[in-house]
């Protein structure tokens, strides 16, 4: 699933001969960073109600990165830097990426395979 998400990301750029949509791939790299730095590498803190300074900061940064992943293609389309087709391919790539992350998270919660 992850590789198909990356493929769509590259296709959104290559089909329309415009590499601005690759800017949203930067957000794909930034989304897991708060989890790695503030959450100790575990995704369990995202669903907990426990707080604290660093945990709340990690939740905020993860949410801001996720919103940025959707907002960047919209902003680029509004500025007429990308076409509507490239924006739609970016959205499909994002939703496949989110599905991959959710499957990975669920697999990590289950200790027995």
TrEMBL record:
UniProt KW Hydrolase keyword: no
GO cellular component: endosome; membrane
Highest taxon of source: Eukaryota
Bilayer-spanning residue ranges: 24-46, 58-76, 82-104
GO biological process, one term: late endosome to vacuole transport via multivesicular body sorting pathway
Subcellular localization, as worded in the UniProt entry: Membrane
InterPro entries: Vps55/LEPROT (IPR007262)
Protein name per UniProt: Vacuolar protein sorting-associated protein 55 homolog
One Pfam family named in its UniProt record: Vps55
Topological type in the membrane: Multi-pass membrane protein
